[in-house]
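Hey,
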Amino acid sequence: EKRLLSYVDKSNENKKNNDSLEVTIKPKDIKKDKYYFATYALLYYMLVNEECLEYYNSGRINFLNEEERFLASEISYYKHKYNTVNVADFYTYLNDKEDLRKVLDKATSLDLDNSVSVKDIESYISTLHEFQIKEEIEKLKKKIKEEPDVAKQSEYLMRIAELKKNS
């Protein structure tokens, strides 16, 4: 009888453990590297730092993706129209632009301090520039593989060498 009771207790214990098991499926992780961080940090600082916004307006910040470019453009427009940018008000302003709000969410999720130095802004800009060069080189390498004309391949190689030299 004791053996049977201990078996039943163990069986019930296993059931409890099995019932409490939860399966969690994580969504595909977005690669959050230094380029990701630089992009969204710059977008955030455009909201809270006048100098960063000026860098964008002067053409020194170029974002890679369309959504990021649109958000930066909206931030600049909002600042021009209302002469100020408040993160909460800007979020409300984007109420009807779901795609841009998602991009803004990425920027605000970084949990950054509102103050940033010019040196840090320039570092983020150079990180983006470095990534753009890397991407351009990869595109040219693909073109070289696909191009049958040796003269065109040579042009692409020269462009790659120029990009590497200037970076």
